[in-house]
Queue: 2 jobs
Job 1
Amino acid sequence: MSVAWVGSQPVSLMDAIQNAAKLLASSRCPVFTLDTDVHGTRSAIALAERLGGAYDHALGETLANEVSLFTNHGGMFTTPGEARRRSSLIVLVGEIPAPHHEMLESWAASRPDLGDRNKRLWFHASGSGTVSADTRKLKAVSLGGDGLSLEGALAVLRAELHGRHVASPLGNVAQFRQALNKSQFPVFVFSGASGQAAGLVMLQGLIADLNKNGRASSVFLPADDDAWGTALTSLWMTGFPPRTGFSNSLPSYDPVRWDVQRMIREKEADLHVWMSTRGGETPPRGEGSH
């Protein structure tokens, strides 16, 4: 059964579609926020292209952080299966999204069957030094310091591993250095929700340092699998991730210019289309747009 409204009034689905079509046809700068599956993403991008609009994901800022790591910086990455079989040292970076916790717990219940095959050790780079219930369950040793952000903690950790003096040292670095010396393949696990883009770049710099004398890598776990699916769908359709616009009929990617929430706040958009396949999700209200 389809339910539709125009304003606060229930109407037939056909009347709602006709009303939306009129708004879209009269819009000079429509923007689309996506929180949908592959089919919904494809339809929204095709519509944005036809209308000369722009599109972004509902988790735009987090997704942009993840995308920028690949498009602007690069890094060392491995697969979850490779990490599970080869790594005896796992470092969790920041908060890992809940959908991935079960996988990490399965790693904790197993032992590497390739590489050094030592008992798996866990550390947690958290900035403030706090230990969450999930990392406590994994018996992860905290790498953090009072008053430090995650980005700051990663910078301090990188400096300390280089033997440099720091004003605010982290806890348990000596224990971590000892674990690094024994491990043949340390792996850092992170997501776009772990921190800001600068922190993710610092993490990859730390991993690059470790690869000068050994082998280390990282496992990227998307903050939201549907959001990453939207990014991949956008890539194969336009060549660019979300935060893409069609102002001159050709796709152009700009993570600042086509930030849909920024465009709504600054009244650059006159029509906001929210597309979601998740039940119960309510779009944010923006001033100056329909």
Note: The chain is about 40% helix and 15% strand.
Job 2
Amino acid sequence: MPGADFMQERQAGWGMRPAAALLDLPSTGTSVIRWSRELTSAFEMRPLLSDHTIVSLNLRPMRAEAWLGQSKVWAGPIGSHAVRIVPPGVERRWSTTDPFDLLHLMLPPRAFQSVAGQGCGPFTLSDPLYGSDTLIRQLGLQILDAMEGGGPYLTELADGLCRALVAHLLRRYHLPAASSPPSLPRALSPARLRRVETLVRARLAEELTVAEMADAAGYSEFHFARLFRAATGRTPYRYLQEARIARACRLLRDGRAGVLAVALDCGFKDASHFSRVFRAQMGITPRTYRDGPA
């Protein structure tokens, strides 16, 4: 069930609070999140990883660049009501200088099993890559209208619309499974996990992607994310952030470095992002932590 960590990770990646959110719908487990910004200035969503399939509905025209892992998949205009389907277990990020308004429907494996039956899946879906889909647009706008209207039975209505969305995705976008080897382990082996941990410790002061962590473990990003979470109980992104904050705590307790120096030494690009992530994990600001009692 998504909780505080779920939203904290997303708010840290986006650097903002959502305009609206409806989490963990009863039967599908879907989380519906609206991200909106009116400013005309450079914006970059920092790399995020999720074990959800994300259906993104663009609510206003804009120009943007988008990446999956290390690959740039889009650069240019995105029309109103354009649709993307982002697979689970792949690091994603995007940037724009335009105002934006996005509706994200985050579908866990449970959402697909609620339609296809228990034990079914995982399902691989094709990505329309900012193409149009009339039914996704209609369902997304109905969910958004229900969220704005509120009232009784909101979650039941949104949940039913999400079940219809999942059925549509399976009918139109499902691709036959082709790449999952039957012998794939259930969790990352201790030896592979140690290789990832060694890489993380060595690169805490640098940018480190999930793709590089997956490469160290010898798996694709998709399989690595699932195996790593099974072994550690955390996503690779969450594990990396926790390791950075643990190092930051040691440096702050030492008291010889300022907050910005600690942020840079722990792989954060600026003190603002560092402070948001630190406060989300520790409950206080880095400065308060440094200046407080030992």
Note: The chain is about 45% helix and 20% strand.
